[in-house]
Amino acid sequence: MERIKEAIAKAKEQNPDIERIPSKSPTTSKTATIVPESGDIKYQQTRVVDLDMKHLEESRIITLDSEDPNSISFDILRTQVLAKMEANNWRTLAITSPTPECGKTVVSINLALSIAKQTDYTALLADFDLRRPRVGVYLGLPDNNTLSDYLDEKIEFNDALVNPGIPRFVVLQNHDAIRKSTEILTSPKVKSLVMDLRDRYEKRICIFDLPPLLSTDDSIAFIPQVDCILLVVASGETKKSDVTECRRQLQAHNLLGVVFNKSDEKSAGYYY
């Protein structure tokens, strides 16, 4: 955990102009605007929240610790994903799984953080699992000013964005389940939102954490709006028949690959 603290402190030193509010503060939000200036990113109006390191560790968010052998696996995944997306000029990525409890949200967060460590890119992680949103919970973010509030027209869109104290990383979180989720995900308002997120910054990678593919029709309805997909499966839990069915449903889309999660195999770490 000390190494994670050091990593975040180093990131903050690189961006001293960030205005911060304490985590779990429900009343002191800022509207969000990312303004690149001279190669640096300054969150002039962005709501910034300091993360709880112990909570991150308990939630298996490990990518901030570059010396953690398991974080190297996400950095390798990041490089492979970015290479394919860059080659095809893709900027939107959906992450889903065949069934619940495969770890897709943890993979989404760790991959987004790994991408944000690349100075050439910014990462936006959107919690589009409208039936069971967990991104904000895993990161320990305040539960106010969410995607749900924006969709209900209670707040402006920029007010729903959060920077968790990490440069080049923004989260569009949600905390409450949303009814008629399939209809919401395919609505003109959400389609316009996705296009805006994609086109707002040239070097932004947008990751959408979606519901399990075989549990609802939310994911298969939303996926035509993104450029490519990652499928997360759980070692010893996901059935071969489920993977086969997912590949069949995704055959008309750009499936980047399958992430084998929850493996007992330990990383060997750096080789010299």
UniProtKB/TrEMBL annotation:
Domain of life (superkingdom): Bacteria
Biased composition, class Basic and acidic residues, residue ranges: 1-22
Entry's Gene Ontology molecular function annotations: kinase activity
Signal sequence annotation: none
Matching InterPro entries: Bact_polysacc_biosynth/exp, P-loop_NTPase, Wzc-like_C
Gene3D superfamilies to which the protein is assigned, alphabetical: P-loop containing nucleotide triphosphate hydrolases (3.40.50.300)
Region called Disordered, residue ranges: 1-33
Keywords: ATP-binding, Kinase, Nucleotide-binding, Transferase
Record-given protein name: CpsD/CapB family tyrosine-protein kinase
Organism: Sneathiella marina
